[in-house]
Amino acid sequence: MLQPSDLETVRESYDRVADAYVELAMGRLEPEPWLRAVLAAFAESVRGLGPVLDVGCGPGTVTAHLTGLGLDASGVDLSPRMVEHARRQYPDLRFSVASATELDLAPASLGGVLGWWSLFNLPREALPGVLAAFAEALVPGGQALVGTHVGEGDIARTEGYGGLPVSWTTHLYRPEELTGMLVDAGLEVVADLRLPAQPPSLRPQVLLAARRPA
Ligand SMILES: C[S@@+](CC[C@H](N)C(=O)[O-])C[C@H]1O[C@@H](n2cnc3c(N)ncnc32)[C@H](O)[C@@H]1O
Question: How far apart are CA 119 and CA 123, in angstroms?
Fold first, then answer.
């Protein structure tokens, strides 16, 4: 069961590394043509269906990219310091502080929702509920896009971006496991992209897009 103290520990850690995350340009999209291709396909699929929420938006890179692709995108993140960076870098966009587990999303209110390398810190047992909330928040035909690290088991991290001390667990997933969770949430998987381990990623990565049936 998710304890408030678990979220607090993760929040404090991301607050501590947020400046380094931005200084090191982590999560930037320029060197990532496959990631940009996925975001372009996602944008094309959900454009006109409603607002898009980037959950775990960090400093707002993907939120801003999707806005540039013509979406009404906003971001939410657990870490206030990440959100400060997002607001500073993209003052015209909307960002707020909240946990993926406490979003209180209105049913059928979103054209798209993302968990872009931001759901792997959730306790394993919390992820199905978060994906179910995503599914319920989508309009029919709307899509969820989830990207994360592939593997088995959990990694206790004590050092984060910039070598700073952190305390969080990275939960690794097999793509089939994540697909199963999206299907259990009531979504249809429409795309499944696997990326091999290659610098700067130490592990393979997966991106899954899943649609709420019409
Ligand atoms: C690896 S960073 C990715 C940030 C951003 N998506 C990007 O690609 O640059 C992970 C982000 O997830 C956020 N995060 C972790 N747990 C979260 C939760 N329970 N709810 C919302 N955001 C969370 C962190 O604060 C951090 O900003």
Answer: 9
Q: How confident is the model at residue 200 (pLDDT cuts 50, 70, 90)?
A: confident
CA of 111 to the centre of ligand 1 (A): 21
Ligand 1 centroid vs 122 CA: distance in angstroms? 10
Residues present in the chain in total: 214
Tell me what pLDDT residue 28 has: 96
Q: What phi, psi does 54 have (nearest 5°)?
A: -95, 100
Contacts of 83 (CB under 8 A, 6+ apart): 57, 75, 77, 95, 96, 97
Give the residue whose CA is nearest to atom 15 of ligand 1: 118
Split at pLDDT 50, 70, 90, the class of 185 is very high
Task: Give alpha helix (H) positions in the chain.
Answer: 4-23, 33-46, 61-68, 80-89, 127-137, 175-184
178 Cα–ligand 1 center, Å: 18
If one counts every other C-beta atom within 10 angstroms of the C-beta of residue 71, the result is 23
CB-based burial label for 212 (10 Å; 0-12, 13-18, 19+): buried
> Going from the N-terminus, what domains does the chain have, and what CATH number goes with each?
4-148+174-190 (3.40.50.150)
> Which residue minimizes the CA distance to atom 22 of ligand 1?
56
Nearest CA to ligand 1 atom 10: 118
C-beta of 170 in contact with ligand 1 (< 6 A): no
Tokens 């960090």 correspond to: 58
